[in-house]
Amino acid sequence: MPRSRRAGFTLIELMIALTILGIIGVAATKMLTAQGRFYDKMTNSRSARNIARSGMNILLSDLRMVQDSGGVDSATTDGKLMRVLVPYRFGLVCGTSGTITTVSMLPSDSATTAQSVYAGFAWRDATTGRYHYVTPTHPTSTDAPATAGTPATCTGSGAGQAQIRTVSVNGRSGQLLDLNAPAATGATATAPVFFWERISYSFKASTAYPGYYGLYRNVQGGTNEELLAPFDTSSRFRYYETGDDTSRTTVPGVSVIRGVDIVLNSLSPKTTSDKGATHSTSNLVTSVWFKNVRSY
Q1: What are phi and psi for residue 183, nearest 5 degrees?
Q2: Dihedral over alpha carbons 134, 138, 140, 145 (to 10 degrees)
Q3: Cα-flanking dihedrals φ and ψ of residue 221, to 5°?
Q4: Beta carbons of 125 and 185 less than 8 angstroms apart
Q5: CA dihedral 61, 253, 52, 288 (to 10 degrees)
Q6: Are 173 and 113 in contact (CB under 8 A)?
Q7: N or C: which end of the chain has fewer CB within 10 A?
Q8: Cα–Cα dist 171/145, whole Å
Q9: Are the beta carbons of 48 and 280 closer than 8 angstroms?
């Protein structure tokens, strides 16, 4: 009987097939590696942007409330620290008597009030439109706001009484309070008034990311809280005076500061593989102009 032929691949065919598979494998590996590096780069770039934007949102929540006359308390010459007087509760002056200023305060969120640290009050001068800041001797203890001893100073309709009705909104009621401090000389009934707290923002060495900077927030009397990191050491504050169209790195006198540039040069927490194991960066500059309403 004739022997049957057995079908199969020759050695040359196998070598060609393996070569083709090798080429496809190398190409697929390069594509996957490139895609992985691209994803890593995009993720780290997004992380850096999120850090900068989050820092901006936190700063703006306070700085947009600051007045342009007396609102900046101090600033360091290197542009790394700025302390501001931030309003957190508003109302109207009812009257003054000696060292007592009686005020009618609008309803406020209890959590906001509880988290704020009273440092003083400011009242608006109707003639100049500017606020005058009053600092009590003991703002958080004996001179802290207390329930008004004579409520009629606010609600009464007699001579020398302000005739201000206490307002309630969504279950929250306003308060009539006595502020024990140096006399608010010149403050007239129904003049706007607000309570303020001292808040410092600073860029300094991060504890979470050694070798880089963190953004810190400190309410007077509390501890420094590292809000976000890492930032490049070039992050800082720049300042505007009246008439400026560009910010200055040289810090002017606090009494003439009208606005600020927040320079947030953030970094990604993780390094990016296709950049030689360096951090992705995001450079964000936001300008804030302080409130300067002079008339209503």
Answers
A1: -55, 135
A2: -60
A3: 95, -10
A4: no
A5: 50
A6: no
A7: N
A8: 21
A9: yes
CA distance 181 to 15: 94
Q: What share of the chain is helix, strand, coil (3-state, %, to 5)?
A: 25, 40, 40
pLDDT for position 4: 58
Residue matched to tokens 């900046």: 72
* Distance, CA of 280 to CA of 274 (rounded, Å): 10
Report the distance separating Cα 273 and Cα 262, nearest Å: 30
44-65 per-residue burial string, b: 16 or more CB within 10 A, e: under 16: beebbbebbbebbeebeebbeb
254, burial (CB in 10 Å: exposed 0-12, middle 13-18, buried 19+):
middle
Q: What is the pTM of this model?
A: 0.84
| φ, ψ dihedrals at 89, nearest 5° | -150, 145
**Which amino acid makes up residue 136?**
P
What tens digit of pLDDT does each residue of 20-79 get?
A: 888 888 888 888 777 777 777 888 889 999 999 999 999 999 999 999 989 999 999 999
